[in-house]
Design brief:
- By secondary structure, the chain is an alpha+beta fold.
- Helices cover 40% and strands 15% of the residues.
- The chain has one domain.
- The chain has a five-stranded antiparallel β-sheet.
- Strand 3 and strand 4 form a beta hairpin.
- It is rod-shaped and about 90 Å long.
Length: 149
């Protein structure tokens, strides 16, 4: 009498092969998630700088903005003034606000400074470290002293 089906050895081999494939695939998926976070952060920082420049060009100062949401749609959390009292101070977070990655200070003179965050809840992930190394993380000065002909 012949039975159709798989032997125990065949099933074990299939399980071992699936385990090996999973061991290879899971780290690749994790790296893809980190790459996506970095790409989103790089895009957000670029959008933020572009929006700040456009707002300053249109209004001539940042005083007319009552909140950063008047300037950009990039999700920021309001921070505490570290550099200058009374300046607009915000933090950019990779995870939606629990740990901060980038510190943003605006002045009414058209200066926007992006630096690594120095508050207590700093993101120490590799993704945030890479974001802090972006060329856009610097002092941006919008406007000027006047138009010359």
């Amino acid at each position: 009498m012949k039975r159709a089906g798989f032997t125990m050895i065949e099933l074990i081999f299939v399980i071992v092969i699936l385990g090996i494939l999973a061991a290879v695939a899971i780290p690749k998926l994790s790296a893809t998630r980190d790459d996506a976070k970095f790409s989103k952060a790089a895009s957000d920082i670029g959008t933020l700088v572009s929006d700040m420049g456009a707002f300053y060009t249109a209004k001539g100062d940042f005083k007319s903005a009552t909140a950063i949401t008047d300037v950009t749609n990039v999700a920021l959390v309001e921070g505490t003034a570290i550099e200058t009292a009374g300046a607009g101070v915000y933090e950019y977070s990779l995870d939606g606000g629990t740990t901060n990655c980038i510190h943003i200070v605006t002045t009414n003179l058209g200066v926007v400074t992006l630096t690594a965050s120095a508050v207590a809840t700093v993101d120490t992930s590799a993704t945030c470290t890479n974001v802090k190394a972006l060329p856009a993380i610097k002092v941006h000065t919008f406007g000027g002293t006047g138009v010359t002909y």
